[in-house]
Amino acid sequence: MSRTPMRVLALVAAVPLLAGLAACTKSTVTCAGGTCHVTATLDSGSRATVDVFGSHQLSVGDLSASEVTVGLEGHRSTMKAGQSDALGAYTVHVDSISGDTVKLTVTG
């Protein structure tokens, strides 16, 4: 095999890895009783999915300077800091949005 096809294969193999690095997220979840506190730091255009209450996936994305889109139990809501919304059996409150970080409180 010549070097050109090998370079093409190497480039094709690297694209998904580079895409994953470009959409990096960091999140923490702390749950106690009927409350979970979530902090998610998102790179531009990325999403985070975290488990709350052990078995429910909370998605966080579309973060801008003033709002964030949150999904839980098949429901989605776009909220600003200070707002709350019922998503299924849970209530999600946006505690703060600062730069690329959002802090949420989930109760249920």
From TrEMBL:
<protein>
    <recommendedName>
        <fullName>Lipoprotein</fullName>
    </recommendedName>
</protein>
<feature type="signal peptide">
    <location>
        <begin position="1"/>
        <end position="32"/>
    </location>
</feature>
<keyword id="KW-0732">Signal</keyword>
